[in-house]
Amino acid sequence: MATQWKPWLLAGCYALLSLSAFAQTPPLQAEMYMDPSCPCCKKWAAHLEQHGFAVKIHHVANINQTRQQLGMPSQYGSCHTAKVGGYLIEGHVPAQDIKQLLLQKPKAIGLAVPGMVTGSPGMETPGVPNQPYQTLLIENHRSAKVFANH
Ligand SMILES: [Cu+2]
């Protein structure tokens, strides 16, 4: 039997289409691992949320161990590690760098801002001048290169 013309069905499809067209793009998902007592980690999570990320926080007792388990080389370590789009993001990496990474999709472990740099997102300290820093692209366990200068 031939499919009958069902205008109401078509109207329903258009309604769905226009709904999805006007809906906001889905937020970028970040899974973040941090020590619950880390205030600058929370500030970095807020920074990501301000830039359109949905952040799911996992509290861990030993972030060094978790970082190692996730696969971020410990020499690039900072206070928190996040998983975003198949990459690992270590430390106070600016949201714009993560978005750039997701656009470029290089073959890499992820990005890192090692240590705790004053002035990086979540590490802003009133009265203390911002330090210049670099976001590193961690290619593998032996090599890394500069991804962005800040
Ligand atoms: Cu920190």
Notable features of this structure?
31% helix; alpha/beta; Glutaredoxin; binds copper (II) ion; globular; 4 helices; 150 residues
Structure overview:
With 150 residues, this protein is an alpha/beta fold. Helices cover 31% and strands 26% of the residues. It has a 7-stranded mixed β-sheet with strand order 2-1-3-4-5-6-7, sandwiched between helices. The termini are far apart. The model has no long low-confidence stretch (mean pLDDT 90). Copper (II) ion binds next to helix 2.
* Percentage of residues assigned to helices: 25-40%
Task: Give the ligands present.
Answer: copper (II) ion
Strand order of the largest sheet: 2-1-3-4-5-6-7
Mean pLDDT equals: 90
Give, in order, the helices and strands: HEHEHEEHEEE
Structural class: alpha/beta
Distance between the termini: 66 Å
Strand tally: 7
In CATH terms, what is the architecture? 3-Layer(aba) Sandwich
Largest sheet: 7 strands, mixed
> Low-confidence runs (pLDDT<50, min 5 residues)?
none
Strand content: 25-35%
Tell me the domain tally: 1
Find the CATH superfamily. Answer: Glutaredoxin
Global morphology: globular
Per DSSP, the total helix count is: 4
Tell me, what is the CATH class?
Answer: Alpha Beta
Overall radius of gyration: 20 Å
Question: How are the SSEs placed, and which strands pair?
Answer:
Blueprint: H1 7-22, E1 28-34, H2 39-50, E2 53-59, H3 63-70, E3 80-84, E4 87-91, H4 95-104, E5 110-113, E6 134-138, E7 144-149
Parallel strand pairs: 1-2, 4-5
Antiparallel strand pairs: 1-3, 3-4, 5-6, 6-7
Residues 40-41, 78-79, 92, 116, 123 line the site of copper (II) ion.
